[in-house]
Write a structure and sequence with these properties.
Cytochrome p450, three-stranded antiparallel beta sheet, 57% helix, binds protoporphyrin IX containing FE, Cytochrome P450
Length: 450
């Protein structure tokens, strides 16, 4: 019997079957929404109904790179964030601060000075004649070079050549943020089991390839470095020592070490760019910082990392930049005692800019880190841009050294003024794990001959 005849026999028409399935689908969706709102194990947690009822709205915001804004509105209204001192998992990376002291302040201090000197020379050259320089781009070059050199003893030469061609050539992605973008798309697809595989097929192959290429290129760098006998005290030197002690399998070593470029370069350059923007838009802050740096160092040769790290106002400026513009703004997932399968994250952007944690939460005020009485009640412990617990950032000290030394040189050597079109630079920036920062053109006038 033909299918149409069968339907006819049961007095069903093709139209009624379609209607039947539509009604069933709508019913199922309605039941799921009601379940999510009233009966889900997390239903007791407060939140805006459109985010509680379904994962779809947040996934759409995430794909647009704007999830931080509805999340911040929700946090501001419902005060639902928490702060936990010890996350789960096992530390695979050497996180002992002594290792950074040994590397940054001892054996490799010249390497860092060399990179920063190179960056300053390029900034000087490209800003000559009052031309604006996109610091966002140059900081990305610089951090990429520094992280490759310190990570795997490979100098990519992006600053030297003034182009990201080396980055593109080696990692086959124009910038690290493209990897983050691809990761965001995949993450959103995986939330919608059992449709996850189907949805993942909608991701353009070129985007998927970017992620695969980057992972493969990073792995290649790790393997090359592991096979090389060198006397460099780079990140891999310490990591391999630690991995040996913990008897980690090669696969774990490779997987962990390959994230260094990814984790370290974009994050640090985002923080530096944000710091320059905020310094340049706050003349009082700028004057104070300039005075501190220029008083501390009589010449370029005097600008030594160990002394830069002792500058209190520079420290406050960097802390404030990391508060207001935390590079990994949406945070990373953690497990805690909530129903199995629940993804838990602390959103840095929301907690760092919440009025329940900070007075004038969206204003750039380094003084809140300097013990000023007006800001005595600020909940400064909430600011954890490097995360907390055993899986927090092993590159924290390294990143702070790079950022502070770069800023110290920059402020010592140049007078900075923001270029045209930067008025609303910070407004509406998107996030795909990392920030998509637009160009930040800056006019740089040499203060003195050096
Ligand atoms: C301002 C700069 C940086 C920020 C804000 C930052 C932030 C973070 C955060 C929040 C995490 C934790 C992710 C989680 O909770 O699971 C992390 C992990 C990590 N970071 Fe950073 N990071 C920065 C710079 C660096 C640098 C320079 C390096 C490399 C030397 C680095 C290497 C890593 C690695 C390898 C991990 C994974 C650690 C693990 O899985 O145990 N980061 N980073």
């Amino acid at each position: 019997m033909e299918y149409a005849q069968l339907l006819y026999h049961h007095e069903l028409t093709p139209q009624s079957v379609v209607v039947y399935f539509l009604v069933q689908t709508v019913l199922l969706i309605t039941i799921k929404l009601i379940y999510n709102i009233y009966f889900h194990p997390l239903a007791s947690y407060p939140g805006p109904i459109f985010l509680v009822a379904s994962d779809i709205p947040l996934a759409v915001y995430s794909l647009l790179g704007t999830s931080q804004y509805p999340l911040k509105a929700a946090h501001d209204k419902f005060n639902i964030y928490g702060y936990k001192k010890n996350g789960g998992g096992r530390a695979n990376f050497p996180k002992d601060p002594r290792f950074y002291n040994e590397m940054m302040l001892g054996k490799e201090t010249i390497t860092l000075a060399k990179h920063i000197g190179r960056l300053m020379a390029q900034l000087e050259k490209h800003s000559a004649g009052g031309r604006p320089v996109d610091v966002r781009e140059w900081f990305t070059f610089s951090m990429f070079d520094i992280n490759s050199d310190f990570g795997f003893s490979e100098d990519m030469g992006c600053v030297k050549n003034g182009t990201k061609a080396a980055m593109h050539h080696t990692f086959k992605t124009p910038v690290v943020i493209d990897y983050f973008y691809a990761a965001t798309l995949l993450h959103q697809c995986h939330k919608f089991w059992p449709l996850n595989r189907l949805l993942a097929l909608c991701i353009p192959p070129s985007t998927r390839r970017m992620q695969v290429n980057h992972t493969e290129a990073s792995l290649e760098r790790v393997r090359k470095r592991t096979a090389t006998d060198t006397d460099r005290y780079d990140f891999m030197h310490y990591f391999l020592k630690q991995a040996n002690k913990e008897q980690l399998p090669t696969k774990t070593i490779e997987a962990q070490a390959s994230v260094v470029i990814l984790a370290g370069s974009e994050t640090s350059s985002v923080a530096e760019t944000a710091a320059v923007y905020h310094i340049s838009t706050h003349p009082d802050v700028y004057k104070k910082l300039q005075k501190e740096i220029q008083t501390a160092f009589a010449s370029i040769q005097d600008i030594k990392l160990q002394d830069v790290l002792k500058l209190p106002y520079l420290d406050a400026v960097v802390q404030e930049a990391l508060r207001i513009h935390a590079p990994l703004a949406n945070g990373f997932t953690r497990w805690k005692h909530v129903p199995r399968g629940t993804v838990v994250t602390i959103n840095h952007y929301c907690s760092n800019t919440s009025a329940s944690n900070f007075r004038d939460p969206t204003s750039f005020i380094p003084e809140r880190w300097m013990g000023e009485a007006t800001y005595a009640d600020d909940n400064r412990e909430v600011v954890q841009p490097f995360s907390v617990g055993p899986r927090n950032c092993p590159g924290q000290q390294f990143a702070l050294c790079n950022i502070k030394l770069t800023l110290a040189h920059l402020i010592w050597r140049f007078d900075l003024t923001l270029g045209e079109g930067t008025e609303n630079w910070e407004v509406g920036q998107r996030i795909y794990n990392g920030w998509i920062q637009p160009a930040l053109p800056v006019l740089m006038e040499k203060r003195v001959e050096w």
